[in-house]
Amino acid sequence: MSGDYVRRNYRSLHQSKDLYYFNVKIKQTDLSIGVDKASYSDSLVEFTRQCIIKLRAELETYIDFDPNFQHSLVPVKVHARATSLVTNMAQAARACGVGPMAAVAGAVAQQTGEQLLSRVGEVIVENGGDIYMNCQRKRTIAVFAGQSEFSSRIGITVDVDEMPLGICTSSGTVGHSLSFGKADAVMIKSPNAALADAVATRIGNIIQTKDDFVNAIEVAKNLEGITGVLIIKEDALAAWGKIEITPL
Question: What pLDDT digit, counting tens, does each position of 200-232 carry?
Fold first, then answer.
């Protein structure tokens, strides 16, 4: 298997040997973070905690100001003085026609990762299955797709020149995130993790049967900023863009 292997599902069984991993959980935000071992220090944990506290405060404050931001299933306008987190979520949602909270996990992962990069050389942030990564070597992200025969048997290999990169996944059969579709996994790649997150929801909503693959791919192809798409339902998959599938 080329590159390193970063476990995509449930974090627990296998992680890259050259990275040091730690978890930070505050309320609903639960991050698994890998950094290069040379850069790790215990102070990173508290630094990450403070980053998350600040990001959550920004979001919670804005939701208090505009509760519709949390509940809307369609794009919403945001105040001109909204923070970058709120603005990024709103822009990502507007690009693909979903509600802004569809982008929250990817947006938080990316902003946390970008702040960590002021102190580390490499970082992978996983937030509920949505990933932001900026590494100096090739990495392989395993694909978890529920009961599909492909689940944990294939991975997506990411080249160094693709990073920084967001890789976000939506599922209509796994987890608690809202999806109106029935895909086992829709994985989206984009340099913008908030956009990848929102588009994963948009494409996931389309998939009811395998017959929807072609339409879903066409929708994704016409969204600016998307570099790769992988769709899995039961024993079938479809891919478009820069998707290097690696057997595990």
Answer: 999 999 999 999 999 999 999 999 999 999 999
Query: Which DSSP string do the residues of 21-65 spell out, in sequence order?
Result: EEEEEETTEEEEEEEEGGG--THHHHHHHHHHHHHHHHHHHHHHH
As a whole number of angstroms, the distance between CA 201 and CA 191 comes to 17
| End-to-end alpha carbon distance in the chain | 7
- Tell me yes or no: is domain 4-247 CATH 3.10.129.10: no
Q: How far is CA 23 from CA 50, 57, 88, 89, 224, in A?
A: 13, 20, 24, 24, 33
> In this structure, what token pair is assigned to residue 2?
């080329």
Q: Which residue do the tokens 């298997």 mark?
A: 1
3-class state of residue 215 by DSSP: helix
Q: What is the pTM of this model?
A: 0.92
Structural contact between residues 65 and 80, judged by C-beta atoms closer than 8 angstroms: no
